[in-house]
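[Automated response] Your request has been received and processed.

Submitted sequence:
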Amino acid sequence: MRGRSIVTAMPPEDSTLERLTGPGALARAAELAEVYLASFSGPPWHEDARDAAAFAERLTADALRPGFVAVLAVHDGRPAGFGTAWPTPSPFPSGRSYDGVNRLLGGQAEARLSGTLEVDELAVSPHARGQGLAARILGLLCEDAPNCWLLTAPKAHDAIRLYERLGWQRLTGPDTGVVVFTRS
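Generated structure:
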């Protein structure tokens, strides 16, 4: 789980958001990877084409998860942003970033996060930032979920401000290697 996010210069009503299931996301994987690379190539992520290819590979497996959902935003025929999510299984998984999250939550990840919607990626291309697109994507991604969680990097200041502004609750302190948020 990478769980990064970027905040969202265009009027938000000028973009179209499409909710996708796993097969729909895989059919649009090239567009998602395009947004991924544009979104995460700058600070604080500094990702490159190899990282975008790794994302596309993860997407192939993630899209098969039960309950997988994605949202793709398009503006003027160009992909502008996306989000991906799925319910966190029980028992709480290991690997990826799960072990670190469980450690940070004092071994309580199973009780607090299993069964909730896990937002894995939230990305908005630089050309589409600054007008609330990230909030719209996140809202559509989570609209049917009573509880959600996500994580981001402590250096992702814009993303942290977004989640706080939207009322998400921070579960980890300021000196951790990852920031975990929940929404109930």
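Summary generated for your ticket: The domain at 12-183 is CATH 3.40.630.30 (Aminopeptidase). Strands lie at 15-20, 69-75, 78-87, 117-124, 148-152, 169-170, 179-183.
If you did not submit this request, please reply to this message.
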